[in-house]
Design goal:
The complex is a heterotetramer. By secondary structure, chain A is mostly helical. Chain A contains eight helices and no strands. Chain A has one domain. In chain A, helix 6 packs parallel to helix 8 and helix 7 runs antiparallel to helix 8. The longest helix of chain A is centred in the C-terminal third of the chain and has 26 residues. The model of chain A has no long low-confidence stretch (mean pLDDT about 85). In chain C, about 75% of the residues lie in helices and about 0% in strands. Chain C is built from five helices and no strands. The radius of gyration of chain C is 18 Å and the shape is elongated. Chain C starts with a helix and ends in a 5-residue tail after the last helix. Chain D is an all-alpha fold. Chain D has one domain. Chain D is about 85% helix and about 0% strand. Chain D contains three helices and no strands. The longest helix of chain D has 25 residues. Classes of the chains: A mainly alpha, B mainly alpha, C mainly alpha, D mainly alpha. Chains in contact: A-B, A-C, A-D, B-C, B-D. The interface between B and C is large, with 46 and 49 residues.
Chain lengths: ~230, ~80, ~110, ~80
Amino acid sequence: MIKKAFALLLVIIIGIFLSATFARIPFGEPKTVVGKYYLDHGVKDLGGVNIVTSIVVLYRGFDTLGEVTVLFLAATGLGMVLAGLREKDEKKRKKTPPSLIMRTETKLLFPMTILFGAYIFIHGHLTPGGGFPGGVVIASAFLLMFLSHKKWEAKEKYTKVTEALAGMTYVVIGLIGLYVAGSFLENFLPKGVPGNLFSAGIIPLIYTAIGFKVGSELTGLLQNLRETTE
Amino acid sequence: MSWVIAIAIIVLGVVLTLIRAMLGPTAADRMVAVDSMTTITTALLVLLALYFKRYIYLDIALVYAVLAFVATLAVARYMEGGL
Amino acid sequence: MLNAIGWFLIYFGAFFLFLGALGIMRFPDVFNRLQAGTKCTTLGALSTSIGVGLLHPAWLPKTFIIALFILLTNPISSHALGRASYRSGVKLWEKSVVDKCKEFKECVEEENE
Amino acid sequence: MSSLILVVSAILVIFMIVGAVVTIHARDLLVAIIASAIVDLVLAVLFYILQAPDVAITQASIMGGLTTAIFLVVIKKTERYEQ
């Protein structure tokens, strides 16, 4: 009892200090010099309307490469852990089959969801979103098929090949930037008119690569999880 | 003023479904409430996009409309023993 | 004119969304709640998004796509939930009159793929 | 930020806290998964209201289907009721 009261007191004190700190930060104004620079010069320098994706892909492109690598490592590690489990669970459970309505409707929704994911990552420099949400939407489309079809599967060789090709595309674009413009992941294409689909240099290319990579990685992960629950 | 009434009615709906999701006796009750909450929230997001006057905010409502039912489907398949 | 129709649709939809939520809150068992929570909210979300599209005619294509996806995804989720809760042994309300699912063979037995 | 938006976000924050408490205290882990899905979906709406659409779209898309499905696979592999 005294322990719980002490914990509650601690939470209240931390809450008071946090609220007092956050109350002094103005809402919606850039606080730092770097943020002010990005907001003032971002659209003019790079040509992308959505300043967040410009920062993620161009100003901080190398960090994004690291994030993609971390996701790849996580998926590979999970695959290795699950590969040890797979032999033990050989006994066949009796599963309830999916109903006819579910099968028919998900077959209809699957291409539309994939198309929506492609829309999200191609329009990353114009609308919110980008490579990561687009890839997750594509993986969700595959999850839909996994849930509602018993025998449907994503072959491991296809997901692995797609993932490797997308990752290589990302690095090759960076190396072309190093050769043409002087530094790794530098923009080497024309900026175009801000607001058009074909603008913002290499942002759509890189986001397409990231979208394919994240989508195929997560699909492979779901396929691994599915094989272990058989 | 007309904004306030429309948004308040919809938020009241979200609150009612959330109360049912917190109270619900069985897991199925809670999932039904969550499913309705996502639909009501999609409408709320569309309306708030008009309130903020930002066209790009409609994308988030679209993501809600497309993806929120995947969770419902997964829970349903778990409950009938097909996962 | 378009403005008035848009506002009417928004209020209509908001009212139906509220009714659906009230049904979720007040109805006695899972299947009744499923009824209220799917039909009312589908109609409400449809008419709200179309109404927003009518207020801003440039937004109409995207709100139409949102309405289309709601129309496609809501019935399947409610179907899956109803089937799953029947199969997992959720009891009907004690004043329920009819249980059609018990009469049909293929509803109880396994379906073939 | 108008007072309407402030009231809406306050209501949503209260429900997020209640959902987190339900998540912690539920014995049935399926209920815990559903409550955490509620927390995530409401969090996406909050990001939207605070005008961070990129974060909101990522939150909604990841939490909509994937994490729920992965948690469900986990409790399928282990067990549903906590001791």
